Amino acid sequence: MTDMTYTPSAASTVSPRIGLIFRSLSRADFTVLLRSSRTLLLNIAVPILYLVITDLHTLLRLGGNSPAGWTTGFTISLALTVGLMSASVMGYAGTIAQDRATGVFQRLRVTPAPTWAIMTSRLLVQIVVAFVMTVIVVVLGSIIHSSLFSVGQYLLVACVSLTGGAMFLAIAQAIAGLIRSAAGVNAAGRVLFIVFLLLGLLGASGILGDAVQDISDWTPVGALINVYSGVLDTAHWDWTNTSGLIATSGYIVIGAFIGIRWFRWESL
After folding, report:
1. How far apart are the C-alpha atoms of 150 and 75, rounded to whole Å?
2. How far apart are CA 104 and CA 1, in angstroms?
3. Which of 98, 150, 211, 232 would bridge 73 by S-S if both were Cys, CB 3.0 to 4.6 A apart?
4. Is residue 57 one of the residues assigned to a domain?
């Protein structure tokens, strides 16, 4: 009698290749991101708005002079920094919290996709969008301010954007790791956005004294603005720009550690 016992074939037991899994995840994440009006607002519209607002003194002829320290490099740096921060601290963190609350992560975890691929895909999508935003803002800023940047400066700004994007994504991941509820993550993101922005702007203006300015230089916004300003004017790179790079790197390490160590895949 022939043995009719079913033995699974090798093809039926082998999991999909990691390359195929990662491409599928990335394609899905890109599709969701591009279809979100909130994404376009936070990633593109917000930095352009800040770029235009900081140039109103010229457009409206309000005295004809920039505020103290508000050079072309500073205004472009501010727009880029705000764009990266809003996309990560309010956009990415909120999306992660919402997907966790609705069970998206739980469903993804029962698929053959490894957990590292799920998160890496989302982070990669954010980095690509940050790069696109950087190109748009720098080109538009150079037109508004009638400035000409070298190819080297464009490349340096792109590298800083990747670093700054990683910093704010690490902070956003830390927020999502420490706070389990979607409402709590959204609230914390908005509060931190305002606090970081005010500290960065008030410190850069110097109106509150040297002590506040020194503190501001070590905040995420102040540090990244200083790095951007440094690469847009490499001839005047100094310790302030170097300390900004150190602080940015430190926030990446600390944020990533907290975000990975305390992140939970399920909601409350």
Report:
1. 18
2. 49
3. 232
4. yes
The predicted model gives 228-238 an average pLDDT of 88
Whose structure tokens read 């205004």?
75
Instruction: Say how far apart CA 259 and CA 173 lie, in whole Å.
Output: 5
The residue assigned the tokens 């500073």 is 74
Give per-residue pLDDT as tens, 127-140.
988 888 899 999 88
Residue with tokens 């847009």: 232
DSSP string, 39-102: HHIIIIIHHHHHHHHTTHHHHTTSTT-PPTT--HHHHHHHHHHHHHHIIIIIIIHHHHHHHHHT
User: What residue type is assigned to position 12 of the chain?
Assistant: S
In a domain, 48, yes or no: yes
> Which residue, among 145, 148, 136, 147, has the nearest Cα to 58 in the 3D structure?
145
**Domain range holding 250?**
16-261
For 214-240, what is the mean pLDDT?
89
In a domain, 162, yes or no: yes
Q: Is residue 54 part of a domain?
A: yes
Answering whether pTM is above 0.90, one says no
- Structure confidence at residue 6 (pLDDT): 44
Q: Which residue has the tokens 């914390």?
A: 188
Domain count, the chain: 1
Q: At what angle do helices 72-85 and 151-178 cross, to 10 degrees?
A: 30
Q: Which amino acid is at 173?
A: Q
